[in-house]
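Our preliminary data section would be incomplete without showing what the modeling component actually yields. Below, a chain of 182 amino acids is followed by its predicted structure, encoded as tokens that our downstream tools consume directly.
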Amino acid sequence: MATRTDAFGFAALDWVGLLGFMAISHVAGALGGMDTRLAVRSEWYKKLNKSPANPPNWVFGLMWALLFTLMAVAVFLVWQDNGIRFPQYYNVSIALWSVMVVINAIWMSVFFGMQWFTTALVILILQLMLSIAVTILFFLQQIVAGVLMIPLCVWLCFATYLNGYVVFSNREEACRSGRTRV
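Predicted structure:
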């Protein structure tokens, strides 16, 4: 029996899978983003010493929306292939992608919600290493999926620099004010 496909060649179940991964990715981003939206309007964030390379606040929302979409499409492509090329990496890559999405939401809450900048930097470095590992695993299974993960890795390198700048350029102020969260 032939599988019914739509005009784009996707089976009906494929659309459900894609929408499911989109929902997981964007819901995790929205949960982490709740602290972010409040923080970027706050006085403490405005007074924070930030890198001269720090883009305007609206760029972050736009970039993360794009990155969450790319991450969802990438994992969907791997899921759709069902481990055909390297079945031994299939479950690991899906599981690591899931952990990566959760860690990303945690970073936003730690940085913007708790204002624990050093802890956030450690989490971000872990996130970057995990994203690189997921990208490599995705490349092994589905080349397009690996390519779609590259912008995330590049953005996380930039985010690590920005977070590191906040940690090291705000230490003196934290000590003077008695704040120990940097």
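The CA atoms of residues 54 and 65 lie 18 Å apart. The chain has a mean pLDDT of 86. Preliminary results of this kind motivate Aim 1 of the renewal.
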